[in-house]
Amino acid sequence: MRQNIYRLWKNANRTRYWVEAQIVFALLGLARLLPARTAIELAASIGRKVGPLTGRHKLALENLRQAFPEKSDEERERIALGMWGNMFRLGAEYVYLEKIFDFDPDARTHGRIEVEGEEIFRRLRDGNASCIFFTAHTGNFELLPVCAATFGLNVTALFRPPNNPYVAKKLLSARHTAMGHLVPSKAGAAWGLAKALDDGGSVGMLVDQKFHRGALGTFFGRPVKTNPLLPKLVRQFDRAVHPARCIRLPDGRFRLELSEAISLPRNGDGDIDVPASTQMLNDIVERWVREYPEQWMWFHRRWDV
């Protein structure tokens, strides 16, 4: 009896995921019929109207209240609306990712994309460096691995696929066209990244997601658990760690920032201090989010430990 109930539940979930995926694919198909700028702006407008109607909007406002108790309800609502516009805009940008990224390292003038830290990209490329990049879900973070590939860097990126398996499969296929090697965030992901580093390549990862078995620290003064994989990889392979982020600018433009390597904290024995290192990552991401709060994903349960 219990197995039959589980089978029915699993089939119902599969059907729901399939229906949701067809809706997403249809919307993306319609977006392709429009000019890129028009489709992206339309998506942002829809997001600002649809987002507040979802259950996630309440969670986003609660997270904002906890993170910014000094702000008024109106200010937090404005940030949440901006976030929904950013997220729906990001969804539409998947369709035009290769068109959006018009940066040419050898050109004297640039279009939508400006890069801060070009000299670091060139130095890493010319030195055939193996390093670790980290970022957060800010702006259009998907442009960062595209940028690295443009400079000729071999980067294997860790990403978390959507819960919907049909959307995840389609998204993975789209990402492979412009982003090089990808490792889904699941059991065995650490081995894929370790192999990339062992082979002399570089890896990139998002560090602002909840991780149930992670190192305990704080984010906006509240307890969180953070994936300790990055400092553990540094401890094993002794690679330089570079912060990188994307900032969404007015008029459909972006600034991609690559910073010089940071030094992770070490314990008395000289080994990488994993909890202190994950806290350093949290502090850097918090600084980014405070600077552009509407460009971060406030609707997920980052603090639910």
Protein architecture, described:
The chain has 305 residues and is an alpha/beta fold. It folds into two domains: 92 residues, no CATH class; 192 residues, no CATH class. 50% of the residues lie in helices and 18% in strands. The protein has eleven helices and nine strands. Strands 1-9-8-2-5-3-4 form a seven-stranded mixed β-sheet, sandwiched between helices. It is globular. The model has no long low-confidence stretch (mean pLDDT 86).
Keywords:
cell membrane, 9 strands, transferase, acyltransferase, 305 residues, 50% helix, single chain, LipA_acyltrans, two-stranded antiparallel ribbon, globular, acyltransferase activity, 7-stranded mixed beta sheet, alpha/beta
Quantity of strands, as a count: 9
Average pLDDT number: 86
Q: In this structure, how is the largest beta sheet organized?
A: 7 strands, mixed
Spans of 5+ residues with little confidence (pLDDT < 50)? none
Q: What is the 3D form?
A: globular
What class would the helix/strand composition place it in?
alpha/beta
Between the first and last Cα atoms, what is the distance in angstroms? 34 Å
Organism: Oricola cellulosilytica
Pfam families: Lip_A_acyltrans
Keywords: Acyltransferase, Cell inner membrane, Cell membrane, Membrane, Transferase
Protein name: Lipid A biosynthesis lauroyl acyltransferase
